[in-house]
Design a protein that fits this description.
The chain is mainly α and 271 residues long. Helix content is 54%, strand content 3%. The chain has one domain.
C-alpha cells in the first residue's frame, strides 16, 4: 500500500474520484466482504423479529458514542511503560502518524494488520453474545455497515472533495477542526454535534486556542520521537521520553481518565 500523499489543491476532485481512491485500499474490501457474507447469512436464516429492528436502531444511536470512546481511549492513547513493557498499540501509533500527516491515504483507514482481529472479534460477539443466531447476524450486519460508513466518511473528509450539502459540511468541518484546530475536541467522525455535544467536547471553535500539538500528539510525552517515523522510533529508550509508569500508576491513570470524562469531559488541553 502506497504511503504517498494525496496531491493537494485538486479543485476538480469529484465523488467518483473519491470512490476510486477508496477502492484501492484493503479495509473497505475486507469490511465489505464481511458485510456481504453477514447479510447473506442473515437473509438465509430468516426468523425476523422485533428485536432485530431494536438491535439495529440501538447500534445506530450508540455508534457516535462508540466512535468517541475509541477515538479518546484507544487512538489517542499515550505511549507509556509498565515496568520494562512499552504499551503502545498499533492503532494508537498509526493514529499519531495520521495526525502528523493527514494527507497520507493509507493512514486514514483502519490498519490492515489490525482489521482481521477486529472483524474476528465482531464475528465472535455475533455468535456468542446473542440468544439466537439471527439476532447475532443482525448485529454483525449492522456493525459492518456502520464500519464501512465510518471508513468512507473518514476517507472522504481527507480528500479534496468539497462538501455539497450542509449535513456533510458539518461533519467535514467537525473533523477538520479536530485535526487543524485542537485535537482535544471534536472526536466523532460520521456525525457532528452528537456524542461530542453530550460529552462536552463540542465547543465554539472561537473559544478554543489552536493547539501546537494537533499534528504532534502527546509531544510532552513522546519527546524527540517524531510521530511520522516508523514505530520503532516511538519505542526508543530514555531519549524517546516515553512515560514510565508502574502498574499502580497505570491503573490510577485509567481511573482518573474515566472520572474526568464522566465529570467534566476530555476537552481540556493536557499540560
Amino acid at each position: 500500500m502506497s504511503a504517498s500523499r494525496v496531491p493537494s489543491n485538486r479543485k476538480d476532485f469529484t465523488l467518483p474520484d473519491a470512490v476510486r481512491l477508496f477502492c484501492k485500499h484493503p479495509s473497505p474490501w475486507m469490511i465489505g466482504a464481511t458485510l456481504a457474507a453477514a447479510l447473506a447469512a442473515r437473509i438465509a436464516v430468516g426468523d425476523w423479529q422485533l428485536t432485530d429492528a431494536l438491535v439495529s436502531a440501538s447500534m445506530v444511536m450508540v455508534f457516535p458514542f462508540v466512535e468517541w470512546a475509541i477515538h479518546v481511549f484507544i487512538l489517542h492513547w499515550r505511549p507509556r511503560r509498565i515496568g520494562k513493557l512499552t504499551v503502545d498499540p498499533l492503532l494508537a501509533c498509526k493514529h499519531r502518524q495520521h495526525h502528523a500527516d493527514p494527507r497520507i491515504p493509507a493512514l486514514v483507514f483502519i490498519p490492515a494488520k489490525a482489521l482481521p482481529w477486529i472483524l474476528a472479534g465482531a464475528v465472535a460477539i455475533a455468535v456468542l453474545a446473542f440468544p439466537r443466531i439471527g439476532l447475532g447476524l443482525t448485529f454483525l450486519t449492522s456493525a459492518m455497515a456502520l464500519g464501512l460508513g465510518y471508513e468512507w466518511t473518514h476517507h472522504l473528509i481527507h480528500t479534496d472533495y468539497k462538501p455539497k450539502t450542509s449535513a456533510y459540511h458539518a461533519i467535514w468541518r467537525n473533523h477538520r477542526l479536530h485535526h487543524f484546530k485542537n485535537e482535544h475536541y471534536w472526536f466523532t467522525i460520521t456525525t457532528s454535534g452528537t456524542a461530542d455535544r453530550v460529552l462536552r467536547t463540542y465547543p465554539d471553535p472561537a473559544s478554543v486556542p489552536t493547539s501546537p500539538t494537533a499534528k504532534n500528539l502527546h509531544a510532552s510525552t513522546v519527546l524527540g520521537a517524531p510521530h511520522n517515523k516508523p514505530r520503532q522510533s516511538l519505542h526508543a529508550d530514555s531519549n524517546g521520553g516515553l512515560e514510565k509508569a508502574s502498574s499502580r500508576n497505570f491503573l490510577s491513570h485509567i481511573g482518573v481518565r474515566l472520572s474526568s470524562v464522566l465529570q467534566v469531559g476530555v476537552g481540556r488541553p493536557r499540560s
